[in-house]
Amino acid sequence: MIEWVQGVLEGNRRALARLLTAVENDRPGAAEALTALYPHTGKAWVIGVTGAPGTGKSSLVNALAQAYRKRGETVGILAVDPTSPFTGGAILGDRIRMRDLSGDSGVFIRSMATRGSLGGLARASRDAIRVLDAAGFDRVLVETVGAGQSEVDIVRTANTTLVIEAPGLGDDVQAIKAGILEIADVLVVNKADRPGADSTVRGLRMMLELGHPTTRQIVSHHGQMMETEGAPAAPMDLGFWLPPVVRSVATEGQGIDELVQAIDTHRDYLRQADRLQQVERQHIELEVVDRLREALLERLFRQLSRADFDQLVNQIQERRLDPHQAVHQLLELQTLNVAK
Amino acid sequence: MIEWVQGVLEGNRRALARLLTAVENDRPGAAEALTALYPHTGKAWVIGVTGAPGTGKSSLVNALAQAYRKRGETVGILAVDPTSPFTGGAILGDRIRMRDLSGDSGVFIRSMATRGSLGGLARASRDAIRVLDAAGFDRVLVETVGAGQSEVDIVRTANTTLVIEAPGLGDDVQAIKAGILEIADVLVVNKADRPGADSTVRGLRMMLELGHPTTRQIVSHHGQMMETEGAPAAPMDLGFWLPPVVRSVATEGQGIDELVQAIDTHRDYLRQADRLQQVERQHIELEVVDRLREALLERLFRQLSRADFDQLVNQIQERRLDPHQAVHQLLELQTLNVAK
């Protein structure tokens, strides 16, 4: 596998595809390859694209990729589907929609679905983003389907996160907005030619105002700022980032230039002072903690006999022990084992 | 807190509300109270209700609760919102929609939103379900908003899981169906008076067929079975459970009797042989593993100095160490510490 590393660094697409498969399935040797690639990472600008079903994420990713290609930048696309553990339906759909991009050697598209645990998918996406980064793509677009913690975890490694909305998606879409608004660097109201677009834009601005104390403060002092549509023309350094709301009709290519501009503005913002370093640090801490959690569990189960575990489960089922007490006992057991 | 335990067992609503708050926030003493209540659990039938946004889950929970009340059964409702870490919007909405039920002493409604990690929410929901169970409610309805791994984790403790769909929810709703179909014991097509209901029902049946090898087999042998609408009139023991597809218009009370029947049929099915014990065992194993994962991490961070951790993060950021290697080092460090 280590021989593919050189290929990936030289831009060999076959080596790239093979290594991604190995990384996705956590094959032996994948960890070493990632270690070897790691010093070559940190150059790509990683853009996370997320939002509720029906917002047109795939079309938007498609349009964004084409816009970057026109500027001469190379694009790696990772479509991650945390909602689909056993069918490949959505992934297939994405691929079909992305046919405009295939055949272009400056674009590389990869799909990933849930295999085993969601934690495993977050780990695999992070590693895959890193491989695409080391392979030298200028932009890495990470698209996730779904609406919940899943994509929050997956887009967490992105440098700029786009949250996509669309008008008229039913009554409790509001609930979703609240959750993912927190992770948005740029908000996109796609399908903006549909009725209700104005009210979606207004709703998002209201929620931005409710959600972010700093924003609320600014808004009360400079009410007009929230009225600015699209991305600000020049980077404004207010000491914090106010997510712009961009309107688009991705299938018609409308609003894409504004979106590209908004992403660049966000990049410029992060590159000021040592913000990018700070954000990267947070990402690294989260990643180490996630990996540690899994590694610790794995280690404990290597030390624990199945019989001991089954006995505890029996006691819980017979209501002689509760799960909290059981965990306590397991921890003590491990301490004894390690100390031996 | 332990004094509330007696109150909860005696049906005191104030004690119940207080204990739930303590459990939700993991206050000191909550673990002891849960241990004391644990022997009194395992009597309620826990029904998980989940599905994509806009399917009318809250109305359905409302209608189900009213149906159970008419049969003289008591109902605890837990509305969990994994998508809303900082606003209470959806929860408020649920409460308003549930006003038909308030004032009835045989119903207890509780909302819960994300606080901190999603893992924390899954833990808190599990504990809250257990408290409602010990409090003697015949049925515990657990409703979750969202669409992804989040609610899979939350409804995992349910005895019967309902997955709600509705006609005409946009193009990539398909993706969501695939993911949550796996956890469905009963499928509900709500808002079945809307155009497209027939095609939603057909789509679900097709996906059931695609997803479950056993079903596929049965379908090819007894094609007519998949044509049965609603729940079968009598429990059929085929050796596996074929999720029925029930149509409803919850706001009009249509299809609710059929749904109640389908849930009872599923309960009868699980009560045959030792299926219920087996399912419970799986739930317990998952719970122990989840709790263990968090407890192990907590213990490691108690043993690790902030300076050591920061140093590792620095090395990763400077690309001198990759996250995989870092985790390795941390594990070794702990082994040394414990062995000391």
Please give a quick description of this structure.
Two copies of one chain form a homodimer. Chain A contains 14 helices and seven strands.
Features:
14 helices, Rossmann fold, seven-stranded parallel sheet, 2 domains, homodimer, 340 residues
Structure description:
The structure is a homodimer of 340-residue chains. Chain A has 340 residues and is α/β, with parallel strands linked by helices. Chain A folds into 2 domains: 40-273, P-loop containing nucleotide triphosphate hydrolases (Rossmann fold, 3-Layer(aba) Sandwich); 304-339, no CATH class. The first copy, chain A, is 54% helix and 12% strand. Chain A has 14 helices and 7 strands. Chain A has a 7-stranded parallel β-sheet with strand order 3-2-4-1-5-6-7, with helices on both faces. The longest helix of chain A is centred in the C-terminal third of the chain and has 29 residues, at 275-303. Residues 84-93 and 215-235 of chain A have low confidence and may be disordered.
CATH domain class of the largest domain in chain A: Alpha Beta
Proportion of beta-strand residues of chain A: 5-15%
**Proper CATH architecture of the largest domain in chain A:** 3-Layer(aba) Sandwich
Whole-number total of structural domains of chain A: 2
Radius of gyration of chain A: 22 Å
- The low-confidence parts of chain A are 84-93, 215-235
